[in-house]
Amino acid sequence: MRRRTLLRLMAAGGALAARSSWMPGPGHAARRRIDPRESLYGRWTLRDGVPAFVYDLDQAREPAAEWNPFLSPPTRRNWLMVGNGVIRLQAANDGTVALFDEGDGLRWLVAPDPGGTGISILDDEGTTWGSDFAMRGGERAPRRTFGPTWFEIEDVHRGLALTRTILCPEGDVPWLLVRVQLRLARSAGAARSVRHVEQWRLRPRFLNLFEAPALRRARAEAAVSYDVTTSANGLVATERFAGPAAAFLIGPPATLVLERVGGTGGDATHRFDDGPHPILEIATALRLRPGERRELWFRFGRDRDAPVEKPSRLLARSRRGLAAWVPRAAADAAPEAAQEIPWHAAMLRGGLAPDRVLGGRSLDQASTYSYLIGFNGAARDPLQHALPLVYLDPDAALSVLRNTCAWAQPNGDLPYALDGAKRPTNLLFRPSDANLWALWLAAEYAAATGDLAAFNEPLGHHPTFGAEPVALREHLRRQFRYFVDEVGRGERGHARILNADWNDTAIQDSGVTPAVMTSQGSSVLNSAMASWVLDVFAGLCDRLGEPALAGEARAQAGELRGLVAQAWNGRWFHRAYAPGVAPVGEQDCWLEVQPWAILCGAADAAQSASLLALIDQGHAADSPVGTRLRWPAPPDRVAAGTWGDATLGGTWYAIDMTLVWAAARVAPDLAWKLWRRMTLAAHTAAYPTIWEGTLSGPDSWNGPESTRPGRTWSAAPAFAMQAFPVNNSHSHAQPLLAYLRLLGVEPTAGGALAVGRGAEFRSRVFRLERSGRGSLRARGPVELRTARGPVQGGPGRVAW
Known about the structure:
It is a single chain. This protein is of the alpha+beta class. Among the domains are: 85-130 and 156-325, Beta-galactosidase, Chain A, domain 5 (Distorted Sandwich); 488-586, no CATH class. Helix content is 28%, strand content 24%. It is built from 20 helices and 42 strands. β3 (79-83) and β4 form a beta hairpin. The chain is globular, with a radius of gyration of 27 Å.
């Protein structure tokens, strides 16, 4: 019943329509007309109460499946990263996988370069076939299913069915569980002798910042070899680093294990091929009778652990655990929420990783930044990605806050990023907003959990700085001081822009030299954001017994609010100021500052209403996915094909989130409409032949005026988001946070948590019903601002 209900909701909301058959015949995808509500690649379903996507396209026979990553040749390989918060699996439509780990640094334990691995190979009475798409067994495309923490491929050859499932198990598990199911149809007529080979190619890649793939490949091949030992159940391969290239590798050597688990039957042999690309294999001989089904179980991944005695129980327990963890949502104004909220939450959690250098957990942007270029940045990003985790997994949110604060110098200066080896780096950027995100996450965590004790716990600094640990609250104090005293003020008294605020390219349109803009220019965006953030940070300071700090934060917030109010030009708010020139954003409206002007209270009611109407009729008009960053579009640049990408008219998840939040306060119907444009369903409806946007996305979509609408930016020669256009954490964190804001969930200036009504959200720690009733699990005293009045309570369950 739940599956039918979900599919009805999906259809009603313009989401993906289910198809009746999972195995299209030859040329099926090319012949059929794509329904605008469905994807070329497949359909959504429910597995174990959690959304999953069935991919049934034969990409080899569908010309529309080919796409251009720009930094590598055109391809028809589509992929998705899934994880358990410890290890990450890249699953691809070609039936292969790769394995990523960032505990010691950004690295592929097994790279998808030049292709994936982790496959079943079957010697089926003289015919060789398996889970690799290139050696598929049937005439029809195999069914590949992408789950939130797993990947499955199903194929059939002459009555012998192969189902291969690869799972990132629930818990602190740095390896993959593999189940291979073989079933011989009763109609096969005779028994079959089959030899199954579990094969993993070892291709390490160490993501030193901005190194070319060929250099990374050459260094790994020159410097990494393996000491392999054989046990009764499998193979243990320990990396050995040697030679000149070893100096460029990241972190300590890893130990990888491939073994049979759970008392798998059949005669098995183990093999290690120590060639240019070392291979681990376990071969199992089986004989199946008609109607018989056999299961083989393996695990592959980092470290050797205690034996898995009951892998079937681990698989079942992981599925139940995932279903229990993901949140549930329901909204009459956005039926898509029922499917997308649990999916986004699982994708976001999958991006978490333990940090064995700094402690805590990282939650970086991933996508091109981590998986290709080799850095975790900017510092603001893990902090804002962790905001919705406050209502899903508060431990993880706190851990990300602590981890990112540990990047900072003792004076509170947060570096732009960490490189592939987790060393502080600024690249070319010195943004002025980083500290604000730490203060915001701290205030939201405290308001929703009441966990004030966490702020007294000691926290170290990056080893580079050689500084003694101090309490988390002292880290935050120093970051506040850095923003006030070192970032300081610029033109017209606004917060200085330095050489970037949120928008890395804003200074280019200032009309002055970068040096002048960096030293004297100012950001209305940062002033507006700081006005709101410092108010809620002041509420946290009050609760921590810091009245002087709270007073200074409120004074700064009030002064900046007044300055932002003066930036109104009669139509919208200016974007930035530079000495001696016209304001940035005088002739066109830069979206990123507008929602913050509403949220911080600088815009009065009339200004807020007219501003949102202008955005709806301008920036958002005819844009199927998100809201353009700038409007109006210059006609000459549109005609020349140089408008619509990235910060020049593209749409950004991080900015759409604040826009939805601001609109929710003034024009709720508009806010819901804008949120629906952030959904995967909206992208699929508009661009059904584009893979990115089906299950995950980048940080920014190209707008309708782009020469490549529905794709993402590719302008920088070595820095194209299009090269890895999925699994940017913004594409999952921002729809989650925006949904909560639509429900009126946000911290207040007094240190309380506001909650509203109108839709549903349920997680293990926070629950809100349409009526406005709800509950949360508090770790300390909390105060709720509800539709029925203030409520105080905690620790423990607090209901209203």
